[in-house]
């Protein structure tokens, strides 16, 4: 890309711009930004000390709507990543939290409650965990696994709501580095 500073015109056709003797335009390296910021390339290049022309970047805070959407994306990422649940009398079970995983957990919870109501106490409910290990759980263990998984998801949602509403630990609003693990359960 070449630039004519007199007419403030950018030329994408290299041969035409070279005939006019226009300087080549480069783009500065994109700056690092925090989670609540965005780097926007300037519309027009600026002349550098050596006579070359370069597009610079401006780091801006996202709009409130954009930041709230980004908080939702982070929340959803964390829910989908899942958690590890300590099941009484069994041990730790890593659980995924994606949409299909949540549907499966709802079905397994209903199955476990039905089996429990019929008096079943054996480890007859198969469950494949987040790292593809099979577990045979009792109805009570499955009910506990689902309940604890939901508690983690609920806590993650609560943090995102507090961030967006400026309540709880976030009375100062959404932190710039809202993806930092220290804010999330």
Walk me through this protein's architecture:
- The longest helix is centred in the last third of the chain and has 27 residues, at 139-165.
- This protein is 38% helix and 23% strand.
- Strand 1 (2-4) and strand 2 form a beta hairpin.
- It has two domains: 2-61, no CATH class; 65-183, no CATH class.
- It has helices at 14-19, 64-81, 99-117, 139-165; strands spanning 2-4, 9-11, 25-27, 37-41, 46-47, 53-55, 57-61, 83-87, 91-95, 125-128, 134-137.
- It starts with a strand and ends in a 20-residue tail after the last helix.
Describe the structure concisely.
It is built from 4 helices and 11 strands; from the N terminus they run ββαβββββαββαββα.
List its traits.
2 domains, 185 residues, alpha+beta, 11 strands, two-stranded antiparallel sheet, 3-stranded mixed β-sheet
Structural class: alpha+beta
> What's the mean pLDDT score?
91
Principal-axes shape call: elongated
Order of helices and strands: EEHEEEEEHEEHEEH
Counted up, domains total 2
What is the topological layout?
Layout: E1 2-4, E2 9-11, H1 14-19, E3 25-27, E4 37-41, E5 46-47, E6 53-55, E7 57-61, H2 64-81, E8 83-87, E9 91-95, H3 99-117, E10 125-128, E11 134-137, H4 139-165
Helix pairs in contact: 2-4, 3-4
């Amino acid at each position: 890309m070449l630039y004519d500073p007199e007419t403030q015109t950018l030329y994408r056709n290299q041969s035409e711009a070279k005939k006019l003797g226009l300087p080549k335009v480069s783009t500065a390296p994109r700056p690092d930004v925090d989670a609540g910021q965005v780097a926007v390339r300037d519309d027009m290049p600026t002349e550098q000390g050596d006579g070359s022309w370069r597009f610079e970047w401006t780091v801006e805070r996202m709009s409130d709507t954009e930041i709230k959407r980004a908080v939702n994306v982070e929340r959803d990422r964390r829910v989908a990543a899942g958690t590890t649940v300590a099941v009484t009398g069994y041990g730790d079970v890593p659980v995924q939290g994606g949409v299909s995983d949540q549907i499966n957990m709802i079905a397994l919870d209903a199955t476990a409650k039905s089996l429990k109501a019929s008096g079943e106490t054996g480890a007859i409910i198969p469950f494949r965990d987040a790292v593809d290990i099979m577990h045979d759980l009792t109805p009570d263990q499955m009910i506990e696994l689902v309940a604890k998984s939901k508690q983690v998801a609920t806590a993650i949602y609560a943090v995102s709501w507090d961030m967006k509403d400026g309540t709880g630990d976030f009375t100062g609003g959404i932190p710039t580095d809202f993806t930092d693990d220290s804010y999330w359960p």
